Every structure is written in structure tokens, then in C-alpha cells.
Model the fold of this input.
Amino acid sequence: MVGCVQVEDRAVTLSNERNSIERTYELTKYLDHQLKEIKDTYLLYLGPPFSDPDFSPPRPNISSLAVPSAATRVDLWRGLENGARLAQNQRAYSVLLCAVRELARSTLCPYLQSSLLHFCSGLSGLLGSISGLMNALGYTPPLPTDGHAPLTTPALSPRPALNDFTRKVEGFWVLRELQSWLWRSAKDFTRLKKRLRA
Done:
């Protein structure tokens, strides 16, 4: 009898884990699709040369938001434990959410500003979904550096005076890095789903 209960409990746990991964994956794919449309609108808003299809400015060396790069070698990224990858995803999206909010604040186009703020709501939902997924899988969501409170979006550091072109380059790279993180996150959640099926 005890064995049957344990089997049923494990089945329920697996079902919850699968559902949590699936919800997080679907939200990630939705945000990726939404971001593609926003990015096209944003580049048109920035104007030439940013709106030129082949334009790709160098990534800024210094950013007041310290936007995390998704350019980690694939073998190193896959070598991390699932919990470590999820924690890095959550930390990255916390910073990127703050960066997108800053883009919305500095945007003069009402339609684009509304789209960016709506996207922020979805990104905030993704952060909550990743936390829920980590809990479902038995991992502890990351804490801030003081170690006392749940992770929240970081406060903006004082921004240095930037010229118009530099601000545009930063905005360009915020959206590019966000797209890279969403793409990689979707891959991570797909691998997690396959692991649970095994």
C-alpha cells in the first residue's frame, strides 16, 4: 500500500514538473515571437543606420546596466547543472527586464512605449515562471548578493551622460541580447522536457 502511494506521489510530482516546464517553455516562445516584432519597430524608430538590415554595431564595453551576454560557449553552458543554468537565466532576465523598462522610459513613440511595457509584463511573468519551475524541480531560486530576500529586478545605477548614438547602440544590444537569451532558454527547457521523458 505504501509503495502504491509513493508511486502515485512520484507520478503527480512528474506531472507537475512537466506542466511547469511546458508553461515556461511556451511563455519563452511567445516572448521570443513578440520580441521579433518589437525589435523591428524599435530599429525603425532608431532610424538609419540601425534600421539597415546588415547593420551590427560592436557591443559596448561598458553599460550602466551591465547587460549579461548570452555568448557562452555551448559546451560550457551545457556542462552546467540544470539548477545553475536556471539561476543564470533568472539573473539575466532580472537585469534585462530593468533594461527594457529603461528603453520604454526613454522612448518618445507612444505605440512603441506601450509595446515595450506590455513586453515587460510578459518578461516579469517569465521570471515568476522560472522561479516556480526551480521550486518544482527542487532547486532554490537565486538570492541577491545580500542573501536575505528573493531576487527582484535590480535598481538602475546612475547613468553616465551618453550621446544619442551611444544610447541607440545600447538599446540595440539590449534587444539583441534579450533575443539570444530567449532562444537559449527555449533550448534549455526543451532539454529539461526530454530529461523528464527519459
User: Anything to note?
Assistant: The CA atoms of residues 45 and 130 lie 32 Å apart. The chain has five helices and no strands. Residues 145-153 have pLDDT under 50 and may be disordered.
